[in-house]
């Protein structure tokens, strides 16, 4: 049966010198699907999403969007295809306000002095920033507060809001729950599930298997640059995932609960 995929990556290979980071990885993503991407350190997760986001170029392979082969040479190519990425170390400017961070590089302006002089439309940016954040189920009293004064979960929400500003079709989230408190983790998980309801496809990378199982429709496991598992969430258990991640029986690994969280 031919399934229609929004994204299809075929036989992606990438070497760093003599190190094979990706050894012919395939990945598919449907519209509105949440795909959990997991693996141990150096499994190839970051390299794969950097290829898709245009941060690095693959050595060989093919990328299709809606069945059409596309070339992604840089981040602009990726964004033009409707792909946005929120990296683990999200680039927020602490001393700027929430709305300035969301619209950074895309500032709104209005005409002044009869249209001769454009000035920043702070009111419109603040209003739009609050609207975007509220759509994710997050409440901010003001978009004029500095990012420096926000909690970890609120900072992550701002980074995600910036990514969805122009309605991406595919959203890549790299460790969005890392370092967050339990309640903030739950809120980010709710945000991710809400994207599915809006038809946005999500690639969710996380070391927290508990979060992966709570949100994902399907889970892909990478190990040493190879895809070793690609299954529906409901057909898998944490034990299966851990065994595939490390190539060992889970009883030889230790406490699965510590990996889950």
Essential attributes:
single chain; 261 residues; alpha/beta; Rossmann fold; 2 domains; 6-stranded mixed sheet; 4-stranded antiparallel sheet
Q: Please tell me the CATH architecture of the largest domain by its name.
A: 3-Layer(aba) Sandwich
Q: What is the CATH domain class of the largest domain?
A: Alpha Beta
- The averaged pLDDT comes out at 88
CATH superfamily of the largest domain: P-loop containing nucleotide triphosphate hydrolases
* Major beta sheet, strand line-up: 6-9-10-3-11-12
How would you classify the quaternary structure? single chain
Structural class: alpha/beta
The level of helicity is 25-40%
Could you name the CATH topology of the largest domain?
Answer: Rossmann fold
Given as residue ranges, the uncertain stretches (5+ residues, pLDDT < 50) are none
Radius of gyration: 20 Å
């Amino acid at each position: 049966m031919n399934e229609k995929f929004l994204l299809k990556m075929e036989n992606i290979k990438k070497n760093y010198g003599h190190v094979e980071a990706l050894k012919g990885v395939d990945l598919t993503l449907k519209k509105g699907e949440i795909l959990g991407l997991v693996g141990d350190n150096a499994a190839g997760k970051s390299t794969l999403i950097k290829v898709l986001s245009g941060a690095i170029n693959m050595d060989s392979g093919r990328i299709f969007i809606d069945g059409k082969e596309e070339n992604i040479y840089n981040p602009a190519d990726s964004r033009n295809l409707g792909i946005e990425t929120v990296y683990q170390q999200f680039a927020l400017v602490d001393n700027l306000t929430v709305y300035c961070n969301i619209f950074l590089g895309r500032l709104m302006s209005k005409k002044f002095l009869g249209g001769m002089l454009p000035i920043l439309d702070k009111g419109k940016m603040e209003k739009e920033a609050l609207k975007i954040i509220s759509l994710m189920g997050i409440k901010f009293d003001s978009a004029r507060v500095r990012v420096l004064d926000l909690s970890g979960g609120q900072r992550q929400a701002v980074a995600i809001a910036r990514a969805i500003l122009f309605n991406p079709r595919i959203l890549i989230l790299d460790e969005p729950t890392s370092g967050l408190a339990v309640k903030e983790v739950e809120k980010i998980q709710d945000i991710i599930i809400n994207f599915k309801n809006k038809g946005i496809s999500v690639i969710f990378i996380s070391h927290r298997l508990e979060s992966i199982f709570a949100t994902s429709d399907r889970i892909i496991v990478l190990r040493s640059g190879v895809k070793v598992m690609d299954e529906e969430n409901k057909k898998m258990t944490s034990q299966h995932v851990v065994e595939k991640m490390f190539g060992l029986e889970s009883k030889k690994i230790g406490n699965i609960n510590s990996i889950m969280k």
